[in-house]
Amino acid sequence: MQHVPLREYAANLQAMVRSGLDSGARVVLITPPPVYEPVLEQRNREKGKALLTDRLAPNTLRYVEACKEVAAQFSVPVPVVDAFAALGGLSEERGSFLRDGLHLNAAGNAALFKAVQAVLQQQLPQLLPDALPLYQPHWSEIIADPSVL
Predict the structure, then answer these.
(1) Nearest to residue 81, comparing CAs of 139, 127, 145, 131?
(2) Is residue 48 in a domain?
């Protein structure tokens, strides 16, 4: 079974954020997404795996809250993308974002991308693609004159 106790998860996350901030990086946290137990349990039965009692949406919500608490501990803003909420939270809708009850499907990836974009637009617009400088010539410049490389 793969499992990290809640306190250890929070301590690990805090250490990673601190390391990133100490190096001058901008840090954005993404909460754990929800799980959808009916599909997860069905897939585990089909594969002959044990049912995972720690993989329950209410339990995941405890880790979501810990992620938000870690973000709030720092003197600089650490934005949080709430993947749990963006992917249906505790509602039955969450099943439509998960291909196997645990991993995101195309709709889940699209919803998460939209949530990340929203947080960046609100809190870190300088990190949006249109705001970032190009380090290499634009592809159209290379086509026009390959010697720019």
Answers:
(1) 127
(2) yes
- Which range marks the domain in which residue 93 is found? 6-127
Question: In this structure, is residue 118 part of a structural domain?
Answer: yes
Burial code (b: 16+ CB inside 10 Å, e: under 16) for 115-141 equals: bbeebbeebeeeeeeeeeeeeeeeeee
Whether residue 132 lies inside any domain: the answer is no
Exposure letters 21-56 (e unless 16+ CB within 10 A, then b): eeeeeebbbbbbbbbbbebbeeebeeeeeeebeebe
What is the pTM (predicted TM-score) of this model?
Answer: 0.84
pLDDT tens digits, one per residue of 61-90? 999 999 999 999 999 999 999 999 999 999
